[in-house]
Amino acid sequence: MADVKKVVLAYSGGLDTSVILKWLQDTYNCEVVTFTADLGQGEEVEPARAKAQAMGVKEIYIDDLREEFVRDFVFPMFRANTVYEGEYLLGTSIARPLIAKRLIEIANETGADAISHGATGKGNDQVRFELGAYALKPGVKVIAPWREWDLLSREKLMDYAEKHGIPIERHGKKKSPYSMDANLLHISYEGGVLEDTWTEHEEDMWRWSVSPENAPDQATYLELTYRNGDIVAIDGVEKTPATVLAELNRIGGANGIGRLDIVENRYVGMKSRGCYETPGGTIMLKAHRAIESITLDREVAHLKDELMPKYASLIYTGYWWSPERLMLQQMIDASQVNVNGVVRLKLYKGNVTVVGRKSDDSLFDANIATFEEDGGAYNQADAAGFIKLNALRMRIAANKGRSLL
After folding, report:
1. Is 181 a catalytic residue?
2. Residue 98: how many CB atoms within 10 A of its CB?
């Protein structure tokens, strides 16, 4: 422990990281630099400064990373139509590589020789933070208190805080029974009644969305403009990446969009039930597939769909900074050059329906696709040879007596 002189801590100002701050100071006898990220979690981050100052921290970083988060992490992920295990839009997963990147940048700026985080030894986040850190600074030391200390319950953390005079706010209102994580892409809920997979989640748990039953009786229409696979405008009004996502969250939440209740397979081996609200992301996924449907070549689109589960797994398991993810990203981004145009959507009581799509780069040819007279644009007689050639191997096998009946 003597070799650790300065450590950069990912610090929220809450109970866990406040205890970690003091524990690092006492256990490692080192200077602590705090880093608090604003990723659009919807809570004030500035109070973390006063809390850190009260605990003797001299170097305090509070960074607004919302635009970088959406522009350089969320948007690239959505270009791939990324979904983990068929449902999860990776709201927590995609935030971790940015936090890891900033931890390392701050370590380099301040001359720190270690970083620290508050992820537990049971979850995925410890893997995501540390894989990212080692990829960006191979020799960095990582301190994960939850794998070292014996403060393994909220009661023990509270006792430690009181014993060491750590300022912890006590709210009069009842504390949420859920472990929650929020950023501009989503908010997640774990623990409490959700640990029983048969028990329905509670309606008052949700923070961002109305229930589909209570959503407006009139549909909401909106138009999303795409440029190179990214949304650049809503209803014709240009917006930055972060404001695009914030606005889609607002509109989607008001229409009961984006609720999810799943059991997922964690990288560490256990199954975990979680509920997620991802209103903006749900809209983005539907709309992006719609604009791709008219602008992507068939085989390019199919290849993207084949690669997507691998890409999703890399993000979920913490390999954002790996060479294979970077390679896949180059391929995905190359496919988006012609993904331009406008998608019109209808939002109604929890559903997102595509009702229109148009693009100057569209590969859809109405003269060929029509069920009406096509003026010779497509010779239907050509299909006979096409079918026979594709059936050739099956006809040969059948002639050899390899009948399927």
Report:
1. no
2. 21
